[in-house]
Design a protein that fits this description.
The complex is a heterodimer.
Chain A: H1 3-33, H2 48-88, H3 92-106, H4 109-120, H5 124-127, H6 130-155, H7 158-167, H8 172-183, H9 185-201, H10 206-209, H11 217-227, H12 230-254
Chain B: H1 2-34, H2 43-49, H3 51-84, H4 90-98, H5 105-116, H6 121-130, H7 140-165, H8 168-176, H9 181-210, H10 213-218, H11 225-234, H12 239-264
Helix pairs in contact in B: 1-12, 2-3, 3-7, 3-9, 5-7, 7-9, 8-9, 9-12, 11-12
The chains are: A mainly alpha, B mainly alpha.
């Protein structure tokens, strides 16, 4: 069994890689809860830094939650109909549309943010409101919603389902509401989790789009890292982990949208 | 039929208007502003003719290439290993390796500081061992480390998904013909994973070229293109140059992803 050695070599390597990813997370959680990180854990545990973050940066947390929910609402309204059209017609034109929609993800957030600022920066009411950040987040997250709904819609036999309903006299809106939407539930769920998670963590664009009164959580984080002691930055990161963790767990559980229950038999 | 087409167009309209107003129009404007500065349209070639910009372009592409190579090797080894060998704890390892998936760049930067910063773990360990403190978080090496950290989770997921679809019979055949594990990896597994490597590699590369948060957290001395754009825009108020540089940067990342998509034949998109 000389392959045993190879197995343990690979296992050792993989353990090292996991340590590389997880050790700093653990260190940062510890630092956020110790009285003095430089002295070490002997200096005692405290929630002081977490409270300091809560008092100083509470607003950023609420803004980020509100922003990600607003972003979700907009991407649902814009994205689900788009995915439906892209699933209905698969030709050069719809492929080009899909390609275009993905561009804000491919292009660095910095460029998109600059483009928005030079175009709409002079509308001061808009520039200083959180809607300005929302626009950036929607551009960046929309493709993820469209993609994941489209993946589900392409896997089911939409045409047969709709024809069946139409032959029974259902108009377009009843069909859309009662056939299309329930069938792409899994895709909508996966897309929604993705949108909220991404919006919550978006920094590249937000750093340029924000104003002192519209600071999001990642913007606050960057602030804290730059100007406050390590323990406060760590405590803030801890708060971020706590907020993002449930989303990540849900994402891992639902991330693979399976074809919905009803699949007409001719498919494949 | 005509009625249906009209309805489909109507359904596309909200997204279309939003996209045209907030992406296409601003991008076009960015393009023209890029040519409206002191140097005019020459701003678009300054990235190649100006020694400073060229220098940061070279270091940006350098760190992105190094990130891509390192990430593909690391994720290739661990991804195939975790897909092939199911042992107790396998799920935990996968969960640990994909946990940082949604960390924004700023948080990644902070993780690098935790490891290699002034009060970091590596500094403490090296001080205890050699008496000298090793601190490299605030340099190009720190940035490289951050980008690798950022890229491992998503690349491992792609590699694992691709490795699942490989036919184990091919490897068995190679082995039964006397191929060493090394040859099997090189001649059977690697070619099978090529499309996944191309698409994951392109995402690593494009993200490392365009990302801003990590460099921003690690700060000042790092001379990469996104930092240069940011400095031109905020400190020098040279909006035309910032526009030209970011337009070029956008074209570069978009091209990398588009080429990879045709090469890999699958859908590729950067994230984060």
């Amino acid at each position: 069994m000389k392959h045993r050695g190879l197995f343990y070599l690979q296992l050792g390597f993989t353990l090292l890689v996991s340590a590389f990813l997880i050790v700093p997370v653990v260190l940062s959680i510890m630092a956020g809860l110790t009285v003095n990180y430089f002295v070490g854990i002997e200096s005692g545990l405290t929630l002081r830094w977490v409270f300091e973050v809560w008092n100083g940066y509470r607003d950023t947390i609420f803004l980020s939650i509100g922003l990600s929910l607003a972003c979700l609402a907009v991407t649902l309204i814009l994205g689900v109909p788009t995915a439906y059209v892209l699933a209905k017609r698969q030709n050069a034109l719809t492929r080009a549309i899909e390609e275009l929609l993905v561009m804000p993800v491919a292009v660095p957030g910095l460029a998109t943010a600059l483009a928005l600022i030079v175009t709409y920066g002079s509308l001061s009411g808009f520039r200083t409101s959180w809607a300005f950040i929302l626009v950036g987040h929607v551009l960046f997250t929309l493709p993820f919603m469209v993609r994941s709904v489209l993946a589900v819609l392409s896997a089911i036999d939409l045409k047969t389902l709709e024809e069946g309903a139409a032959s029974l006299g259902a108009g377009f809106w009843p069909r859309f509401r009662d056939i299309v939407l329930p069938n792409c539930r899994a895709g909508i769920l996966a897309g929604s989790l993705m949108v909220v998670t991404l919006s919550m963590g978006e920094f590249n664009m937000t750093w340029l789009l924000h104003t002192p009164l519209t600071k999001t959580l990642p913007v606050g984080l960057a602030d804290a890292y730059a100007s406050l002691r390590l323990e406060v930055g760590s405590a803030y990161t801890l708060v971020f982990f706590l907020m993002i963790m449930p989303l990540l767990l849900a994402l891992q559980a639902f991330a693979n949208p399976r074809p919905a229950k009803f699949v007409a038999e001719e498919t494949e | 039929m005509r009625h249906e087409v009209r309805r489909l167009i109507l359904l596309l309209l909200p997204a279309g208007i939003f996209f045209a107003a907030f992406f296409l129009l601003p991008m076009a404007r960015l393009f023209f502003i890029g040519g409206s500065g002191k140097t005019g349209w020459a701003a678009y070639v300054a990235i190649l003719t100006d020694a400073n910009y060229l220098g940061s372009l070279v270091s940006t592409l350098g760190v992105a290439t190094a990130t891509t190579v390192a990430t593909l090797i690391i994720s290739g080894i661990s991804g195939v290993f975790l897909q092939r060998h199911k042992f107790p704890g396998n799920g935990t390892l996968v969960a640990m390796l994909t946990f940082p998936l949604a960390f924004p760049g700023v948080v990644i930067g902070f993780m690098v500081i935790m490891l290699a910063g002034r009060q970091g773990l590596i500094g403490q360990v090296t001080q205890a061992l050699t008496g000298e403190k090793l601190v490299f978080a605030y340099t190009m090496s720190g940035l490289f480390m951050g980008y690798v950290y950022f890229s491992i989770p998503r690349t491992i997921l792609t590699v694992m998904a691709a490795a699942e679809k490989l036919d184990p019979k091919l490897e068995e055949a190679a082995r039964s013909l006397g191929a060493s594990p090394w040859r099997v990896a090189l001649d059977v597994i690697l070619p099978g994973l090529k499309p996944a490597f191309i698409s994951a590699g392109a995402i690593c590369f494009a993200t490392a070229v365009g990302a801003f948060g990590t460099a921003f957290t690690l700060a000042a001395r790092i001379n990469v293109l996104p930092m240069v754009i940011y400095t031109e825009f905020t400190l020098s108020a040279n909006i035309a140059m910032a526009a030209a540089l970011s337009f070029v940067l956008g074209i570069v990342t978009w091209l990398v992803l588009a080429v990879a998509r045709t090469a890999a034949g699958s859908t590729v998109a950067a994230a984060g």
